[in-house]
Design goal:
Structural class: mainly alpha
Number of helices: 9
Shape: flat
Distance between the termini: 47 Å
Number of strands: 0
Radius of gyration: 20 Å
Helix content: over 70%
């Protein structure tokens, strides 16, 4: 097992390219994390909370209870793998996960969410479309914009406020 875990550190070094290092170092959240705090610690906390949540779940059938615990135990391997990487490699993996997840969520919000809302004539269609367009990751990948990625994120947060207010006022967001 130790040979496999030692190999993870070598494979994690393949993520360290000048592009990803610049993206992570200029990130609003992951920049400070990559310098001061291992992401594996946060993964341990989240995983242990998830295991506790699954273990103490109530009103579940035995099969659902067992699957919940098995799923939580499966995710215990993520912090173990992350702990074998350097802080920068952990931050790069976190950056990739965040960009992928937010990119997919924003794409789905802009296409499926807004598309269905427009077809149904719902008043939250425009806020959904705007939020999706605002949060699709693209501009921060430009080399001239990458050093200012923090300001892009702050701008996105500020632009999201009126969209969320309009979406809540539409009555379809609970």
């Amino acid at each position: 097992m130790s040979g496999f875990l030692d190999q993870i550190k070598v494979n994690g070094s393949k993520f360290e390219t000048p592009f990803t290092i610049q993206q992570v170092e200029s990130h609003l959240v992951l920049g400070p994390i990559s310098r001061h705090f291992p992401l594996a610690y946060a993964a341990w906390v989240i995983t242990l909370i998830n295991v506790g949540r699954a273990f103490f779940a109530i009103n579940l059938q035995w099969a659902e209870y067992g699957v919940g615990i098995a799923e939580s135990v499966f995710w215990l391997f993520l912090p173990l793998l992350l702990s074998k990487m350097t802080r920068r490699q952990q931050a790069i993996v976190g950056w990739m996960a965040i960009k992928g997840t937010l990119g997919f969520a924003a794409f789905m919000m802009a296409t499926a969410g807004a598309g269905v809302a427009f077809q149904r004539g719902q008043s939250d269609a425009w806020p959904l479309l705007c939020l999706g367009i605002i949060w699709i990751p693209w501009v921060e990948f430009l080399p001239t914009v990458a050093p200012y990625q923090k300001f892009v994120t702050i701008g996105r947060l500020l632009l999201s406020i009126p969209c969320v207010i309009l979406g809540v006022r539409s009555g379809y967001w609970h």
